[in-house]
Fold this protein.
Amino acid sequence: MDESEDVPKDFIKLKSEKLSVDEVSELVISPCCGAVSLFIGTTRNNFEGKKVIHLEYEAYTSMAETEIRKICRDVRQKWPSVKHIAVHHRLGVVPVTEASVIIAVSSPHRVESLEAVMYCINTLKASVPIWKKEIYEDEYSWKENKECFWANSGKKLNS
């Protein structure tokens, strides 16, 4: 591939099928980049002493995709050397050990891609309308992201 043909791209996908680390990481590989950084968020089998059976995700899909595109734009402003960005998030049921979210970023050097991946996941959790329901052995619970800005919007403000 000619480097001039390797224009920066964003790959955003919300889907109910199992996510593939190989697929997502391959999307961001570039001949001019020496770093590909990944974040893989998986379903764990416990939360605060309760046995987690699986997670279920719901999203306001069009708004979620728009917000993820904004995150990609912010990444490119903060780290101009970033080449490609992929954000894949699973919807529906996600069994224990399977990936809920995979984020991949390529850049010429590791520092930019590592920082960009961290920024992506933290900002996604704070601003993207994707909701998580934890299913336990005997109950379930909708989980609120501590970072989520709208979760705190109902709190009393100082006048």
User: Anything to note?
Assistant: Residues 61 and 78 are 26 Å apart (CA to CA). The chain has a mean pLDDT of 90. Strands lie at 10-15, 35-42, 46-47, 50-59, 85-90, 92-95, 99-107, 130-136, 140-143.
